Amino acid sequence: MDTFLPAFIMGFREGLEAFLIVSIILQYLRKSKNESLRKYVYYGTISGIVASLGIGGILYILSKAIDKMDQVAKLWESGASFVALALVTTFIYWMIQHGRNMVSTVESSVSQNLSAFGIAGVAFIMVAREGVEVAIFTFAGQYAIVALFAGITAALVLAVLINHSLVKVNLRILFNITLAYLILQAGFLLGYGIHEGLSALGSMNLLSSESPLFIKAFDLSETIFYHKEGLLGLPLYVLFGWYSKPEILQFIMQYLYTGSLFYIWHREIKKEASKLNLLA
């Protein structure tokens, strides 16, 4: 249950963006009188979904095989976390830079690729980017598949309702909330990767148990802040990636990373506000 909410929000956020991107492409083709290319959007979308499922399947099989080897499994989880983190960080930075102008960004890409192959390629890349990211993030974070697909299904329903103008949603607020949550989860993924990596190196006797790297920043595991069962610790763990007994390295890197991304986001918001003030 403690991984349901992160998995649901991850699936919802990435799914909604992918579905809305497809909707933007279709609407642009309709406005520009290029509706004959619509079928290639669907070809590209289906190919992107298949590619994402294929990569997800490979990762699933690999993770199940590695899970049988305890020491290797910890290294796998640590390494997968860092790979996922690199991809998610790239995505987060792109969203901070361009997310506010998603419609114009997508339409610009489409306008530069008005051909059967080009349109299919744009749809494929944008859908596959979201899908591959979800696949890697999911298996690195050991997220529940049911929760993930529940989030994607909810995103599909909302995207259809929005596309048919049946509901009105402030997408900027929605994306800002989910982007903030994604930053927190990415920070947790970094902390998780460091913790599992240190644990693996210790169990393989590559790091001494006396190493300063194992020194805890604090230990609240006997209090209500215990991240697995504590009255406050468990919800904090689910919502914000809280850990009740982190190593000093884990604690510093996790919150330094999170704080840095929030600072970059805040700086971009101020920069945009300054431009708007100048134009006014």
Number of domains: 1
Mean pLDDT, all residues: 82
Principal-axes geometry comes out as globular
Low-confidence segments, given as residue ranges, are none
Percent strand equals under 5%
Order of helices and strands: HHHHHHHHH
The level of helicity is over 70%
What is the rounded Rg? 21 Å
Task: Enumerate how many helices there are, as a single number.
Answer: 9
Terminal Cα separation, in Å? 49 Å
**Main beta sheet: strand number and arrangement?**
none
DSSP E strands, number? 0
Task: Please state the structural category.
Answer: mainly alpha
Give a verbal description of the structure:
This protein is mainly alpha-helical and 280 residues long. It has one domain. Helix content is 76%, strand content 0%. The chain has nine helices and no strands. α1 runs antiparallel to α5, α1 packs across α7 and α2 packs parallel to α5. It is globular, with a radius of gyration of 21 Å. It starts with a helix and ends with a helix.
Brief account:
This protein is mainly alpha-helical and 280 residues long. The chain has helices at residues 4-31, 38-66, 70-98, 102-111, 116-141, 145-163, 171-203, 233-240, 248-279. The protein has one domain (3-214, 247-278).
